[in-house]
Amino acid sequence: MARRYDSRTTIFSPEGRLYQIEYAMEAISHAGTVLGVLAKDGVVLAAEKKVTGKLLDLSGVKDGGYGGSGEKIFLLNSNVVAGVAGITADANSLVNYARQAAQRHLFLYNEDIPVELLAQRLCDLKQGYTQYGGLRPFGVSLLYAGYDPNYEFQLYHSDPSGNYSGWKATCIGANNGTAQSLLKQEFKEDMGVEEAIGLVLRVMSKTMDSTTLGSEKLEFSTLTLDPTTKQPKAKIYKPAEIDALLQKHDLGKKDEDTEMRA
Amino acid sequence: MDISFALTGKGYVLIAADTTAARSIVKMKSDEDKIKVLSPHLLMAFSGEPGDTVQFAEYVERNMRLYHIRHNHELRPPAAASWIRRSLADSIRSRKPYAVNLLLGGYEPRERTPHLYWIDYLGTLATVPFGAHGYGAYFALSLLDRYHDPEATLEEGLATLRRCIDEVSKRLVVSPGKYKVKIVDADGVREVEL
């Protein structure tokens, strides 16, 4: 009998639940972890990559694009980077929508879109699929790390129901419970961005399945202010930079591992 | 026949506009307010085709208010100016364009900077230290070139504005009698006496 209410996204069950939405959120809690921390002078985002393997062609990742591998962390606008967890194909479609929304705002107001407004734009779209007939909602949660002159650095989270909320530090995807309790213990108000990077890497290394962190399993980005122009500067780390960062924080591979690879 | 001036000073923008509503050669009214308060830190003087002016000014006013309600913060002066310019640029490419010229003055509390924009019905936008529309521009711009000081106090700014108005009264054949002057600064928007 339960199936009567499962199959349609837009129908409430007798207990007043929307099963498809809940299933979508369940799907996300199996996806790769995405973690964000808000510091006083920047925002840090890290994500666990799921699609790996030595046969995967990553030659385009090394020096192409904005950095990252294009699986989990995306540049939505010059002032917003997003980490996605869930169905990658859905995420790509949402990222494309977000970039268009940001450009539309730029066209109309000649300023970077405020971060909350961008989150709202995506949530309006996601909410639509909980109400109007479609086959299923977007199976994607996002973390938005952004900057705008009104509220400065911000971190938002949005889920498939179209809810969004602002956070000082949060996590989505697999093991998000563990990561959140770690963040709750270790988060400090008025952290600098360097300290936040350390925190993010520490929590990430504890929540991920693999014993050693490396660029093949991790995407990483920061959003800070450029000291000279005072404009937001998004940096999505390239694989070599991630490995260097991990070495710096003593979380990377041991020397013999790298020697073996070479 | 509308005349409007605006100038920036240290932490403020002053906007002045005449108060005559005329049709053909007849003065219909002499206390018309041609400066709209768009938001707590935004002023707009409008001039041009009667009817178009009020219609467009109210359209802008309500859109600014809508943005404020929807997003819990007012549009910053540069963004507001860009939006207004876009509206006029779209308008002139439509079947029935608005013939409205604007002076937009704003203050940004966060950065503590005054902003002044000169906008015309063609959809031109210029960031200016001072500006004027109408016949007044022919007389006032040279004066403002000579006397404008971006670091001027309010008293000095008002004195410069008075010079412009006096010059127009002296030289223009059909000069308007009265002006309304408004200021926008850290304290918001208010009317000032000349």
UniProtKB/TrEMBL annotation, chain A:
<dbReference type="GO" id="GO:0006511">
    <property type="term" value="P:ubiquitin-dependent protein catabolic process"/>
</dbReference>
<dbReference type="InterPro" id="IPR001353">
    <property type="entry name" value="Proteasome_sua/b"/>
</dbReference>
<dbReference type="GO" id="GO:0019773">
    <property type="term" value="C:proteasome core complex, alpha-subunit complex"/>
</dbReference>
<comment type="similarity">
    <text>Belongs to the peptidase T1A family.</text>
</comment>
<comment type="subunit">
    <text>The 26S proteasome consists of a 20S proteasome core and two 19S regulatory subunits.</text>
</comment>
<dbReference type="Pfam" id="PF00227">
    <property type="entry name" value="Proteasome"/>
</dbReference>
<dbReference type="Pfam" id="PF10584">
    <property type="entry name" value="Proteasome_A_N"/>
</dbReference>
<protein>
    <recommendedName>
        <fullName>Proteasome subunit alpha type</fullName>
    </recommendedName>
</protein>
<dbReference type="GO" id="GO:0005634">
    <property type="term" value="C:nucleus"/>
</dbReference>
<dbReference type="InterPro" id="IPR029055">
    <property type="entry name" value="Ntn_hydrolases_N"/>
</dbReference>
<keyword id="KW-0963">Cytoplasm</keyword>
<dbReference type="InterPro" id="IPR000426">
    <property type="entry name" value="Proteasome_asu_N"/>
</dbReference>
<keyword id="KW-0647">Proteasome</keyword>
<keyword id="KW-0539">Nucleus</keyword>
<dbReference type="GO" id="GO:0005737">
    <property type="term" value="C:cytoplasm"/>
</dbReference>
<dbReference type="InterPro" id="IPR050115">
    <property type="entry name" value="Proteasome_alpha"/>
</dbReference>
<dbReference type="InterPro" id="IPR023332">
    <property type="entry name" value="Proteasome_alpha-type"/>
</dbReference>
<comment type="function">
    <text>The proteasome is a multicatalytic proteinase complex which is characterized by its ability to cleave peptides with Arg, Phe, Tyr, Leu, and Glu adjacent to the leaving group at neutral or slightly basic pH. The proteasome has an ATP-dependent proteolytic activity.</text>
</comment>
<feature type="domain" description="Proteasome alpha-type subunits">
    <location>
        <begin position="5"/>
        <end position="27"/>
    </location>
</feature>
From TrEMBL, chain B:
<dbReference type="InterPro" id="IPR029055">
    <property type="entry name" value="Ntn_hydrolases_N"/>
</dbReference>
<keyword id="KW-0963">Cytoplasm</keyword>
<dbReference type="InterPro" id="IPR001353">
    <property type="entry name" value="Proteasome_sua/b"/>
</dbReference>
<comment type="subunit">
    <text>Component of the proteasome complex.</text>
</comment>
<dbReference type="InterPro" id="IPR035206">
    <property type="entry name" value="Proteasome_beta2"/>
</dbReference>
<protein>
    <recommendedName>
        <fullName>Proteasome subunit beta</fullName>
    </recommendedName>
</protein>
<dbReference type="GO" id="GO:0005737">
    <property type="term" value="C:cytoplasm"/>
</dbReference>
<dbReference type="GO" id="GO:0016787">
    <property type="term" value="F:hydrolase activity"/>
</dbReference>
<comment type="subunit">
    <text>The 26S proteasome consists of a 20S proteasome core and two 19S regulatory subunits. The 20S proteasome core is composed of 28 subunits that are arranged in four stacked rings, resulting in a barrel-shaped structure. The two end rings are each formed by seven alpha subunits, and the two central rings are each formed by seven beta subunits. The catalytic chamber with the active sites is on the inside of the barrel.</text>
</comment>
<dbReference type="Pfam" id="PF00227">
    <property type="entry name" value="Proteasome"/>
</dbReference>
<dbReference type="GO" id="GO:0005634">
    <property type="term" value="C:nucleus"/>
</dbReference>
<dbReference type="GO" id="GO:0010498">
    <property type="term" value="P:proteasomal protein catabolic process"/>
</dbReference>
<keyword id="KW-0647">Proteasome</keyword>
<keyword id="KW-0539">Nucleus</keyword>
<comment type="function">
    <text>Component of the proteasome, a multicatalytic proteinase complex which is characterized by its ability to cleave peptides with Arg, Phe, Tyr, Leu, and Glu adjacent to the leaving group at neutral or slightly basic pH. The proteasome has an ATP-dependent proteolytic activity.</text>
</comment>
<dbReference type="GO" id="GO:0019774">
    <property type="term" value="C:proteasome core complex, beta-subunit complex"/>
</dbReference>
<dbReference type="InterPro" id="IPR023333">
    <property type="entry name" value="Proteasome_suB-type"/>
</dbReference>
<keyword id="KW-0378">Hydrolase</keyword>
<comment type="similarity">
    <text>Belongs to the peptidase T1B family.</text>
</comment>
